[in-house]
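for the writeup, i need someone to sanity check this before i put it in the appendix. the sequnce is what the collaborator sent (i think, or maybe the updated version? ugh). structure was predicted straight from it, no edits. if anything looks off just tell me and ill rerun, i have time this weekend
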Amino acid sequence: MSESKPPTPTPGDTYKGWLFKWTNYIKGYQRRWFVLSNGLLSYYRTQAEMGHTCRGTINLATANIAVEDSCSFVISNGGAQTYHLKASSEVERQRWITALELAKAKAVRMQAESDDSGDDCPSVPPTSGQGGGCRNSEVQSTLRTMTSKVEDLSTCNDLIVKHGSALQRSLSELEGIRGGGDMGDKIRQVTERATLFRITSNAMINACRDFLSLAQNHNKRWQKALQTERDQRIRLEETLEQLAKQHNHLERAFRGATVLPPSFSNPALGNKTGVSGKGDASDEDDDNEFFDAMEDPAEFITVPADPKYHRRSGSNVSGLSSETGMDDQSVNFDEQSLASNLESPQPLELEPVRQRRTRIPDKPNYYLNLWSIMKNCIGKELSKIPMPVNFNEPISMLQRLSEDLEYYELLDKAAKCQSSLEQMCYVAAFTVSSYSTTVHRTGKPFNPLLGETFELDRQKECGYRSLCEQVSHHPPAAAHHAMSEKGWSLRQEITLASKFRGKYLSIMPLGSIQCIFEKTNNHYSWKKVTTTVHNIIVGKLWIDQSGEIDVVNHRTGDRCHLKFAPYSYFSRDVPRKVTGVVTDQEGKAHYVLSGTWDEKMEFSRIMQSSKGENGTEGKQRTVYQTLKAKEIWRKNPLPDGAENMYYFSSLALTLNEPEEGVAPTDSRRRPDQRLMEDGRWDEANAEKQRLEEKQRIARREREREAVKAASSPEEADAQETGTEATEVSDESKYHSFTLSVLFNSAVCGILTKQ
């Protein structure tokens, strides 16, 4: 039984129905409920979601509608949004195309008329007390007039159809008559019916002219009234959103605190929540695969302290709750010390003595032919297949480690602190700042050769000197040591462990970082968090940092617990959020840190703390009353044109700059890295392959000599064979995984083109 065709939708109607939407190469087409209304095409997972969750919306006024085949079509608004849709049949697809074209035409016309309406249409101010009634009666009168005109048009249309059919019959009968006396009668009949058709057509034309004139007269006035209503609606929505945020914040504070001071009843607290909503969110993004992390409930809540804490003198602050564990002298001293550190200018003697470069050659736009890479791998051992430099950036992993010192000023300020708790705030901020350079850096650094070094001498400019060395080849490990004239030293030993989980790659740095301050002999240590590279197979690469860090002062027992929140589609917090609490050896909190690892960090002094009620998951949360937050670190802006220079920071641009007097093993002297920076990628690939093969030969020779020196000749041959087999097996596993990634990327590229 054939499906009855619904009436063709008019531009003002709401058109709804099921369509199949392309999501990604893993899920393919998924069934979604689409709604076309007021020039906007929105979609939902189910019809039940229409009241609360819109998965995506596209404006048809600026969209392009293209038909692909009998059932498929594409809607795109210039690249920002593209919907690949498929209907259940060709008839259903044509209904949607018709509805979309009508809606697009009306949206374009309405937008043009809205732009032209401006101030050239006089507004009619309502009279006092009766403005609303007069305006309403005017609209009703106009609507009745236009309805009457529409009825006239409908009547004329029926008459035209009737007389047109009669005229057509008469003409057919006239053609059938070859001669005779009936010819004159038939001609008169045709003439009469033609006259009726002309009269009806003229009436139709006049009715259309009247309707058009009436519509044009009232169009601009109605457009202006409609725009006024829209503006009022937007203001009302913004007001409701602010009220909802304030209500949410007050409700959370009420749940978390048993008793709050009267000052917390101020609704303005809602403006400090820092929660950013996600508008226009889609359930499937073709360029992103989200990290499936559920939002963890906050371990603590911060609220502004009572104003009395800002005005108290030294003799009065001693009345604070014993939970804070601090007296007034430490409060005043720490506040003054932190403020002086934040506002103190840089010493004049640290002015640069050498002009460093501010640019490198732009990244060439080379096309990566994955099929040619696969073709060149045929017949070769997996352990001898080189990976091209197209996936790299022109610096070594040793230089990437040295980038941790970009915000060395934080350690300089920490060295001047008298309080260990204050010093902990700067060390924690330095810990977070080392991740700020990774947000756009999806390129892979060059793997250092065994014995490769990198020296960063900035004593005359910044007062510190750094040295890195690759101390192990299999597994790769590096050691880093830095010393400063300002009284601090930093050392770290880093090796990496990775896990490939299909959609993303997790990189877990192993090893610890140690920082020692000579003046106070405070010894701090911490470890790095997990780095996650998303969209390994399909989509645009993006990086996230997640995990927890405990910065420990081994001399005093102070501790700072930092939490890097993983990105989550369900979270209402800002992306890349970092929070932390500084506690003393007894576990009493003194400072709260908050911010993002890619932008800035702030700290605030805790004046009072209290235990709240159990949260949503039974965890007891703490409410901290804090002073006004102050900025302790902010990311330096990227240089101009950084997107063409691998998103390098100002320090990263100088790391591979040639210098005189560096060691022969320095990373600046690597020929393949230098060729890549100069844009000669083909030569860099050849040189990289030569260096890697030379390192493999040297490694096998060292292992062969070690085996011979440790055992008899017969056992040496057997162990040598086993060692080489293990080496080939390990490298084969790595290259097998890399080639599978390349193969999947190539297949996805071809599918995208098709």
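The first strand starts at residue 15 and ends at 24. The chain is about 40% helix and 25% strand.
thx in advance!!
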